[in-house]
Here is the input.
Amino acid sequence: MADEAGGDTLLQIENLRTYFHTHAGIVRAVQGVNLHLDKGETLGIVGESGSGKSVTALSIMRLIPQPPGEFAGGRILFRGTPIVDVREEKRGNEIRRVDKSISESQMRRIRGGDIGMIFQDPMTSLNPLLTIGRQIAETVQEHMGVGRKEAYDRATEMLMKVGIPSAKQRLKDFPFQFSGGMRQRVMIAIALSTNPDLLIADEPTTALDVTIQAQILDLMRGLSAEFGSSVILITHDLGVVAGMAQRVAVMYAGYVVETAVLDDIFYHAQHPYTHMLLQSIPRLDLPRDQPLHPIPGSPPDLLTLGPGCPFVPRCPNALPICRQQMPPLDPVGGSGGHLAACWNPVKEKAA
Here is the structure.
């Protein structure tokens, strides 16, 4: 069942499949993902490394390298515009894949303008040969159609908003002259400089110390509210999600296995994977000597996925049908919109 959207939907993802062709075989990185994001909402996407979170984000931005990547099927609608629209149609006796996505020139107007993205590593995302001021100003000129002076004024304004002191002077500096936390602030400034409707943040606090992480998250929270941007926050840290998101989608092996409002995920998790993720987190309300419960085993090889649920080898609730058929993402109770892909959901509270 698709993740149902309402009238204020900004982004709708329907049965998205993103694959990569390698010498070893086809890597099914994203498998039939259904998600939606409403205007002004923050959606957290969580899961272990390799679960398909970043590929989903890159699919929204249309930054999947083709080849080796391909959109094998599905749709991504942004404000009703088909960023990705790949479907199978019957023509005579043949079934052909038809691509009705918007053109790359149309996508360039959306990418960086209506949709901004903060990547994991700002040092590799920023151009080391261009000043920070030029990188922000060029983005503003490209998408807002203003002159050079207005663009540099906007760049100064954005550096001030993200808390970089002596903003006008620092426009002349290069990325290597900034610390890791400051570079991430610059990435936020670039992403928000065009007043985007959607901000995608892919592990925005990776490699930053805890104090700087908190500052970056507070900055994102405040600025997204100021600019009225919807946010997709991709992370493996459920603590980050708890402080930022209204809804959460849990991914595993390319599938969305559970999605719900924040409280339902934390207190009424239905999928065994979500439940076990929560049990593996240190908690201040439990005795200090109580051991954590790590999830046994390892994530599956995406080259060799079978027809059933990919979590079966690690799942304590597995039934025979789990090995034979992937369950649909269906309603499981709680607040409206709580969906889980599980034949044998968890009956007890998760926390």
